[in-house]
Amino acid sequence: MEEIKRILDSEILPGVLKPLRYVGNEYNAVKKDWSAVKLRSLFAFPDLYEVGMSHLGLSIIYHLVNDQPGYLMERVFAPWTDMEKALRERNIPLFSLESCRPIADFDCIGFTLQYEMSYTNILNMLDLGRIPLRSKDRNDDYPLIMGGGPCASNPEPIADYFDFFVLGEGEEAILEVFELISRHRLERGGRQDKRTLLKELARLEGIYVPAFYEPVYLAGGVLKEIRVIETAAPSRVVKRVVRDLDEAYFPLNPIVPYIEVVHDRVMLEVLRGCTRGCRFCQAGMIYRPVRERSRALLEKQAEKLVAGTGYNEISLTSLSTSDYTCVESLVKGLLDKYEKEKVGVSLPSLRVDSFSLELARQVQRVRKTGLTFAPEAGTQRLRDVINKGVTEEDLLEVTAAAFHAGWTQIKLYFMIGLPTETTADLDGIAELARRVLRSGLEILREKSGSRQPKITVSVSSFVPKAHTPFQWEAQDNLHRLREKQQYLKERIRDRRIAYHYHQAELSLLEAVFARGDRRLSAVLMKAWQKGCKFDSWTEHFNWQAWLEAFREEGIEPAEIACSARNYEDVLPWEHLDMGVTKKYLWQEREKAYQTAVTGDCRFESCVLCGVCQVLEVDKVLKSEGKSHAASN
Ligand code: SF4
Predict the structure, then answer these.
(1) Number of C-beta neighbours around residue 536 at 10 A
(2) Which residue among 98, 397, 582, 622 sits deepest, i.e. has the most Cβ atoms within 10 Å of its Cβ?
(3) Whose CA is nearest to atom 6 of ligand 1?
């Protein structure tokens, strides 16, 4: 530990980019005495420090664990390639930020799984930490490797590398997990019997131990069933859920990084879940039901967070902040209170309807931030197919209001390759962008005469995700995606409209890992051995290496991503229960093909998605500051 620190300080850090990524010691970071705790854990973020330190989940879990006297949690992030090179050259293992200890010294390492394209970084970090990659190759002396986060809802492509996964909201389970591990070790004089420990963990609600389940295949790689091979393991693992956000832990003294990170501001979580019901959206399905935090509590939290960090911006985070039933009064209250101190409020994304006008007007009182809207599709027909309850009038009204309020830059998010899409839907994207531009030109001309609107159209490709109504749908093949991207480029020929699109190969790979099965473990290993890492970083993405890895393992990526599935097909994640029922998802898929929309259960009656019944939980709305668990 001391030796690592000495070499770091004297030889490595002076020569790498942004050395502050690796030194820890930030304001509010927690350093605990190793000898005074019964369990030492590590939060591992498989991407750069700047990305990981913007992740609210890290902050919640890190401070929750460290607030317990018996446990400690430190952090590690994926080292950038220059740092990795320096570590390998000097034979230094990957180490934690807080104590500079090799990561293999910890009892338990938890990787957060935010994005499929970070999987190669997980292997790279384990390797740099001198930890055998596959669970079966790690004996009792190695740390337990656990995973959580949205991608844990289908962890099959990485199942071989993990000892267990936590399904659902981590803060609900983590202390139970640590208590169980600590007790197990205490009873064995500080050692662990991994097999027995995993059996004990498998009995905890929400814990999935993949080694206790075996996929059985028919000829041609078709999944026949997922067989439970250990009696301690349940046939279905049900996710964990926080019932009441007002009672849930929230860190009030989060770490303040020394360097600029992606979201460098106070993050105030106003609600969890979204029941708008967009049919492509995984977060909207797996984080149900909606649970709001009360305004009074949020105001108290904001006060402590601003005082405890010195930030001058409060971001109201959630999947859909403008849907928070107290958003107007919360925003107004925060702005009134912090206006003199020049602390602004920001909303990460606005819906294209309802309060957006008023919110936009209020938020700009202190500081103007860019405005982003996500109509997702170019025509009303396709917006109905995906259940995006937004009309063209909504978009034009809200963007006009934004131009009136002084904004000039509007970003519009769309998706191509959605089920049932036609050329008319692509034309619709270009036309919508032009109409927003025209409206901006008129309004700004009247207002100021000289300022020009700037519209950015950002287009991603549809990725079928597990646990969504579109989990059975085919992704467009690479050729089609590229063709559509080029077609749109031709249609948007106006220098006042910037056009960006995502790399099609990356979207294909994302789909492969989003709905793939355990056979992909071998492909992942091959790709990593060929040098793949930081795949979501354009400069590192090596499509040829991935193609070779697939070829060598005899797997055709398009077969996984670009073929449709039937209701009867066994999907790799069917034993993992996120609450929303398969029957409901299929009904939603059928409604998509009938262009029929489904309402939001916050404002209309329950549509029986299943989550409240399966998890015995209620949606919680706090309108008018009154807490009430809405009945179903
Ligand atoms: S079960 Fe009903 S009330 Fe609960 S989230 Fe689903 S649709 Fe909404």
Answers:
(1) 18
(2) 622
(3) 609
Q: Is 579 helix (H, G, I), strand (E, B) or coil?
A: coil
Instruction: Work out the angle between the directed axes of helices 543-553 and 504-514 (0-180°, nearest 10).
Output: 40
Start-to-end Cα distance in the chain: 55
Residue 449 structure tokens:
């005469």
- C-alpha–C-alpha distance, residues 258 and 22, integer Å: 11
Please provide the average confidence, as pLDDT, over all residues in the chain.
Answer: 93
Q: Does ligand 1 come within 6 angstroms of the Cβ of 612? A: yes
Q: Convert the pLDDT of each residue in 475-500 to its tens digit.
A: 999 999 999 999 999 999 898 999 99
- Residues 291-348 pLDDT 10s: 999 999 999 999 999 998 988 889 999 998 888 999 988 998 999 999 888 888 888 7
**Cα(316) to centroid of ligand 1, in Å?**
24
* Tokens linked to 307: 């005082």
**Which residue of 241, 272, 275 sits with most ligand 1 atoms within 8 Å of its CB, as the best mutation to test the pocket?**
275
Q: Nearest 5 degrees, angle CA 600-CA 606-CA 611?
A: 95
Task: Please give the structure tokens belonging to residue 1.
Answer: 């530990």
Instruction: Please say whether the dihedral angle defined by the alpha carbons of residues 596, 602, 605 and 610, taken in this order, is positive or negative.
Output: positive
Q: How far apart are CA 410 and CA 371, in angstroms?
A: 5
- Tens-place pLDDT, residues 138-176: 999 999 999 999 999 999 999 999 999 999 999 999 999
Distance (Å, whole) CA 535 – CA 522: 17
Between the alpha carbon of residue 43 and those of residues 5, 102, 185, 335, the distances in Å are: 20, 13, 20, 34
The rounded distance, in Å, linking the Cα atoms of 140 and 143 is 8
pTM: 0.95
